Amino acid sequence: MRILAKSDIGKARDMNQDYYYVSPLESDIKLYILADGMGGYKGGEIASNLAVNCAKNYICNNWPKIEKDKLEIMNLINSAIEYANMIVFEKSLEIEELHDMGTTLEVVILWNNKVFIGHVGDSRVYRIRKNVMRRLTTDHSYVEKLIKDGSITKDEAYHHPNKNMLLKALGCSNLVKPDVFYKGFLKGDILLMCSDGLTNMLKESEIYSILLNNPDKPEVALINEANKMGGIDNITAIIVDNV
What we know:
This protein has one domain: PPM-type phosphatase domain (Phosphatase 2c, domain 1), CATH 3.60.40.10. It is globular, with a radius of gyration of 17 Å. The longest helix has 25 residues, at 70-94. Helices cover 34% and strands 27% of the residues. By secondary structure, it is α+β, with helices and mostly antiparallel strands.
């Protein structure tokens, strides 16, 4: 297995409010977490950092205690996200400047030829299998709802003025209901976790082409291309290549 990860401030931001965690290759648990923070000066940075570390610590502390079946792993991810949400929300109440902070959160555990995913917000998880790239997560966003309702097309969503409006984020209320599910993850599959700093700059077909044509350092190529297209947000990519 090959793990590649990179985060970049982009061309327009004063700080990088994305944050991620990648477990060491020798670790007992294959855990990958990505958060894209938002809200005021330093608020997003604090929210994403808190969310990632809280989720990581919760999972790592409880991983040895659970049965490694599908239901227990999904319950663990769900509980970790709920715990992270509580911590971020409580922190936002402590300081006035942090009242509007929140974050997206993607939590991924690889286990027994499966990828277990917990998802809140509009960061994304993709799986590439046999030359087909499929988005596994559904954005918790206004434009995603418009697409689902048939009000706009996917192409129209890409240029929609409200495409960054979230309907669900972590830390914005005392309760959050994440999407938690699993898919197969087989030999030869590739997983891509990314913040919207990548997907707002590059279409999915472009992302797939860059992954295909830059086998040595695809994470660097993705970020370079997103910056070339404007880099209006922080950009983070985590690639898990099941070689």
